[in-house]
Amino acid sequence: MKKIFAMLLTGTMMLTMAGCSKPASAPAPAEPAKAAEAKPAEAAKPADKKLVVGFAQIGAESEWRTACTNSIKGEAEARGIDLKFSDAQQKQENQIKAIRSFIAQKVDVIGISPVVESGWETVFKEAKDAGIPVVLVDRNADVPEDLYVTRIGSDFTDEGKKAAEEMAQLLGGKGNIVELQGTVGSAAATDRLNGFKSVIEAKYPDIKIIKSQTGDFTRAKGKEVMEAFLKSDGKNIQGLYAHNDDMAIGAIQAIEEYGLNPGTDIKIVSVDAVKGAFEAMIAGKLNVTVECNPLLGPQFYDVCEQIMKNESVPKYIPSEEGVYRQETAAADLPSRQY
Ligand code: AHR
Asked: 254 C-alpha vs ligand 1 centroid, how far in Å?
């Protein structure tokens, strides 16, 4: 197994150096690249052996996360994969414990959606030493590239940029915005914040981000923080940018309780495109949601199977995502899968 992992990482690094990996801004899902060199037949896992995969999930903090978990579990069942699933309840130490337990159980591949970016190097090295490949699903981890095979998921910076353009349109290029950030230290929050800010600062000098605070990606905290924003800035707020739909939905409740109309008095742009966001848009309370695709199960197990066949994969596999607006929400909702 150590041999497989070492060869796979070498192949992946070679492809990356040769320019075969997709840039972070690539728009469409990438096809896995074949290994440049032929691999010995004995390196691959026998076809009749059941694939054993460990998955260290963050928790169940949002509608998005539940859809992601369902996709990981459902696809494992459909493919007859033995899945060992762990819910870390949004705690990094629980995810680290889960990885160590997967190593002890000698799983074939470990999948993880890291709750925050930093603090993974030691445990990822332990997996590497045990010859177990690590695949990042959804969020990024700040580790050297040789410690994971690939990341499958969204370009969060691009989501932030798209949200900024939508907000600027809604405000006619002028107004005060408050921001509800996701979990502090998570790739999704950091990149969505930076992407949004970069567009506003570069192109829209009359738009100001007057308050920015974490709501930890949950409805309850989104509501709580929005209440505080309204208390301090009230009618001075023209726009709300929320890093996910759940926080926006919590904030909508706070805005209504304060006596303003969400979607009209305060324009709202959020990220995810879960069904709850479409319902809010149909009710006229949310203006735009930028899609972040949680249905990552099929891409994840495709990668696991490629690893087992000793094929190389690109260092980044992006998801394909769109932008959904209030005007078309009723027509869009029936075809939404999550
Ligand atoms: O990492 C993806 C983010 O995590 C989603 O936008 C959010 O809803 C989730 O909790």
From this structure: 21
